[in-house]
Amino acid sequence: MSTRPDAALRTYAVRTLGCQMNVHDSEHMAGLLEAAGYVAAPAEDAARWEADVVVLNTCAVRENASTRLYGNLGQLASIKAARPGMQIAVGGCLAQKDRGQIVERAPWVDVVFGTHNLDVLPALLERARHNQAAQVEIAESLQVFPSTLPTRRESAYAGWVSISVGCNNTCTFCIVPSLRGKERDRRPGEILAEVEALVAAGAVEVTLLGQNVNTYGVGFGDRGAFASLLREVGAVEGIERVRFTSPHPAAFTSDVIAAMAQTPTVMPQLHMPLQSGSDRVLRAMRRSYRSARFLAILEEVRESIPEAAITTDIIVGFPGETEEDFEQTLRVVEEARFSSAFTFQYSPRPGTPAVDLPDPVPANVVTERYDRLVALQERISAQENARQVGRTLEVLVSEGEGRKDGATRRLSGRAPDNRLVHLSLPPHAQGGRPGDPDVPRPGDVVTVEITHSAPHHLVADSGLTGGTYEVRRTRSGQAWQERTSGGHDHGPATAPGGAVLLPVPTLRG
Prior knowledge:
This protein is α/β, with parallel strands linked by helices. The protein has helices spanning 20-35, 43-47, 65-81, 93-98, 101-105, 121-131, 176-180, 188-200, 225-234, 254-262, 279-285, 291-304, 323-336, 363-386, 405-408, 475-485, and strands spanning 11-16, 39-40, 53-58, 87-92, 111-113, 135-137, 151-153, 158-162, 164-165, 184-185, 205-209, 241-245, 269-271, 309-316, 340-345, 392-397, 410-414, 420-424, 445-449, 452-454, 457-460, 469-472, 500-502. The chain has a seven-stranded mixed sheet with strand order 20-21-18-17-16-19-22. It has a six-stranded parallel sheet with strand order 2-1-3-4-5-6, sandwiched between helices. Helix 9 (225-234) packs parallel to helix 10 and helix 10 (254-262) runs parallel beside helix 12. The longest helix is centred in the C-terminal third of the chain and has 24 residues, at 363-386. It is globular and about 65 Å long. The two termini are 27 Å apart.
């Protein structure tokens, strides 16, 4: 039931800047707004910022985060001036960090709220409207665990599940602990209840989220909790794919590798941040592992899960990084054989210990090193993807993955190891509609043979030539079809605009 005092339905749009945790937080923000009586703006209106309420969920990790925020707010100023009654809200990590400065720099902003109090968004919007004044409310510690909030899931077939919030590490380059707070773990029963609710709504894939997902259990004194949780989530009836992100190398243990290898629904994929291959730089970063330990973990993973695809994060140009340090990073990257890597040029973040470190690396040197690293990883990615040619894989068809799908007449999805796959339909199925026997829907699974590759994706044209092509209809595909066609008898609850509105899960009995 709406808590809004007026009967008019106001539209909203949430724009996410940042990581998977922010994406999931945005789903909570959308759920809160819908529970308060707002409706999602149509996608084309949201893309043009044409909504009664626009929420920017911000990131503070990179140096350009502030530039992106104020650039977006600059665009919104003229839109708001031409749209009486429109409201603008800013949340997330940059809001937690900058607080009242946002309204000082952009006085047309109506609401600023932080990472610890997502639940106040609807009330702040109402207060700002009633008082005709900006409302800034930043909590210093978590007020309500986000998982207890209503959630508007964007996907019918896959969902994020937060198992913890916050971080206990002190990496010198990272501002997250000061913005997200100390790690707080959810109880296993709560997590399993949310997974079961997702499955009941049609999902076949879940991704477990945490700033350091594999330290789960510290809060209640169980060091083996994460491995146990992987096994329990993987055993939930109806789940086909379980992923997690991001683990910390210092806390990565053999029991987790065993759980990955022995639980068929846990996917052969691992994203584990390296950050640097130089032990001297790792010490300066306060990363409590060394390159030999990192490579040993990868070796153990590949011994247990030979087909595992491993991805990473790497920072170039950390203060004091020498050419020898950088060469060590290149050496580790060459040996690690990552399927892909997220590479970053170091940017100083006020509020982090690293901002005061001496010996900054000249910008031109950072750029030159960065280009060398990218070139190396592109070569390795191309080689690793080429090894997939000829393999038969099950691809979970997704929405919005392939930007050129319309031109190439392909669909896109993810292999078990999370590689992006573009697949062709058989000639007789081209031009067909989702729901036709050989036309998969998002959420359906297609078995295909990989025919060629590129550094960032695989291509499966086997269906074009009479080769391997088999569609398996899934509950998720049915949920997607009912969501988009307005099915209402036995599908999942759908929110205006098409996303799945998932109620707050109850504890398992």
